Amino acid sequence: MPVGPLETESQFLKGIGPKLYPLASKIGLKTVQDVLFNFPRRYEDRRHLPKLKDVRGGEVVTIRGVIKDIETRPLRGGKVILRAVISDGTGMVALTWFNQPWVKKQLEGHEGEVLAFGELKEGKNWRLEMSSPEFELIGEGDDAEAFARITPVYRLTEGLPQKSLRRAAGDAIAKYLHEIVDPFPAKFLKEHQLIDLRTAVRAIHQPETQKEADEARKRLVFEEFFYLQVVLAQRRQSVHQEHGIAFPIQELIEGKPVILPTAPAETRTRAAVVKKERVPTTLFAETLEADLNRQGLREQIAALFPFKLTDAQQRVVDEIYRDMAEPYPMNRLVQGDVGAGKTAVAACAMLAAVRSGYQCALMAPTEILAEQHAVGLRRVFEPLGISVDFVAGKLKARQRKSTAERAKSGETQIVVGTHALIQDRLDFDRLGFVVIDEQHRFGVLQRAALRDKGLGHPDVLVMTATPIPRTLTMTLYGDLDVSIIDQLPPGRKPIKTHWKRASERDSVYQAVQRLLDEGRQAYFVCPLVSESEKLEAQAAEDLYYRLSHGPFSMRKIGLLHGQMKSDEKESVMEAFRRHELDILVSTTVIEVGVDVPNSTVMVIEDAQRFGLAQLHQLRGRVGRGEHQSYCILIADASTDDGRARLNIMTSTTDGFRIAEADLEIRGPGALAGTMQSGHSGFQLASLVHDAHLLEVARQAAIKLIADDPELTKPDHQGIRERTEEKRSRMALITIS
User: Fold this and answer.
1) Of 60, 59, 53, nearest to 93 (Cα)?
2) CA dist 271 → 4, 267, 274, 330, 455 (Å)
């Protein structure tokens, strides 16, 4: 098979050659194209390097000097610290490396200058010190003019110098740049004010000015976002082409009689859909009971709850109803902060589905949360004659069999459960609406398995109480419609959050005692100290022992952790709900779904061990009643990130602000990992700093796919090829 010029092995480029080719291949630089599209991760402006006398501690900076002294100091275990002192004639800085003997081999005997990049800190023996810096050796033969420029810095592997990659990139540009074909037509480039791809590739590697580098980056970041958004836009388009259930929402709102759908049993499986046949639906004359249809849907909703929906809840309900009325399947994500009322919104949607003659299923990640949903929905729906069943692993075989029979016969309209819902022996009569709570805790196959039990293509509503930054939403969930409940119910008081050091623990306990004296209840949460559930349980048991034999020996205390059996956990939770316990010592099993309004204080031990999202979720277990609530974070944070997280928690209760801060601290890869997705492999793009470009790329992709869904127009051939090339590499969450 003929190979194009860009597929030439990188060993034929100056700077790499046969000797360094194995190392270059190790970091993915196997071909000329790999080298051209291996973009610098930052630049050093070597035209204006600071004098050492002018630098200060805390600065992240590039410095230059000659080596004046090298020394090694042995440590325990055979490890060593290497210290090299450099000087530029105006001052000195110590460069230190921990247990990296290969660095000493490179520095010893070097008579030229050293270029070092890193953060300067106040040292013990020297005025300033730079720990584990990136460094480069400048030899006598190096071109001074070529040195004094905006210089690219690439990601490396040991043994592959920066000089080699710069030289290889320069050689590739000189010999092969003309082979690059821009997938974007000229009209598209002009419309979005982008430079062409060849110009961008040259400028990203060899910028003459910072403006040139910025223009190149803009083009390349746009392209990284754009192909992802094209894939997502095509997925949304394909969903809209599927045959779904057009719920008679308008008739329900107007209180008109609605006739129930039926379908022959043999067509109620996904097999019909796999064959791309529409599930046949026949209508029969039997109508819903007259007293149920006498009121319109909005009047029925008003009677469901002892409270009025907030404006935000009503807006989201309207968005869901618009989707349900369409003849294609709904795929909507509802985001709402802790306590924003997502379950009430889901109940409004389920009411419309049931009134239309369909069954509903709600899947939650834990038995505690699933059972709480079941209890709440029964309270709402059973007075209306709508049955709600519960299924979970802890139920006896006889109970599960009964629920399965009721679901299959259509006798029960709503089934709430854990992953037990997707077991093969649980089938539905006409499942038309699916709700998945805390959806990121389920795998793609689990979500799809529940949807597969539906009648044809059921509508799917996924919910999360983990606020997700808009930029991350557009990348992870760009194929879903998104609704945000950005308003808490009236009367909720903001939770007061305080960060206390371990030395202040006694005063914290005294404050908790005062709240308990007032009749309130408290949570004490211990951290996940290990991936081992056994160790987590030991930590909880230790805290339980210390509290019950120490400052709270006169109080009734319960213990909850993941190693306990389901009935034991439920027994403890029920005792806490009934106020038979004053304090609940727990691990993070209470992170989701525990609702005890009388509990007004949460003490989180070793809070620096938790991530921001988890701290926010835990805090949401209090503040659910009329009384002022508190969250106390006990921590001796020793890292900058740890202190930053705790300061954010004490400064705001806004989940979306916290999510944005978490994105900035941890980056998209870590956050996406908590959502069972890979980060989409952006080389240049930043979800923190490039939000505007992401939105521009998204709108461009939506417009393009609306105009040319299959990208068959001649001008779009390049985009189609690149999209297909990238598609398999994109790790995306989907419920399809």
Assistant:
1) 53
2) 44, 8, 5, 20, 11
Of 345, 352, 354, 260, which Cα lies nearest the Cα of 297?
352
Angle ∠(371,376,378) on CA atoms, nearest 5 = 95
631 closest CA partner among 648, 616, 642: 616
Helix/strand/coil for 197: helix
124, two tokens: 């013990």
The strand pairing partners of 333, in sequence order, are: 462, 482
Residue 518 has pLDDT above 90, yes or no: yes
Inter-helix orientation angle 210-240/691-707, to 10°: 40
| Topology match between the domains 42-153 and 249-325+341-464 | no
CA distances from 566 to 390, 561, 651 (A): 15, 10, 37
Those residues whose C-beta lies under 8 Å from the C-beta of residue 535, and which sit 6 or more positions away, are 529
User: Which residues neighbour 439 within 8 Å (Cβ) at sequence distance 6 or greater?
Assistant: 333, 447, 462, 463, 464, 735
3-class state of residue 433 by DSSP = strand
Average pLDDT, the chain: 83
Superfamily covering domain 42-153? Nucleic acid-binding proteins (2.40.50.140)
Band the pLDDT of 141: cuts 50, 70, 90: low
* 496-652: CATH topology: Rossmann fold (3.40.50)
CATH architecture of the domain with range 249-325+341-464: 3-Layer(aba) Sandwich (3.40)
Q: What is the pLDDT of residue 263?
A: 45
Domain boundaries, the chain: 42-153, 249-325+341-464, 496-652
Q: Which two tokens stand for residue 463?
A: 């919910």
Q: Write the DSSP string, 548-592.
A: HTTTTTTS-EEEE-TTS-HHHHHHHHHHHHTTS-SEEEE-GGGTT
Does the model's pTM come out above 0.85? no
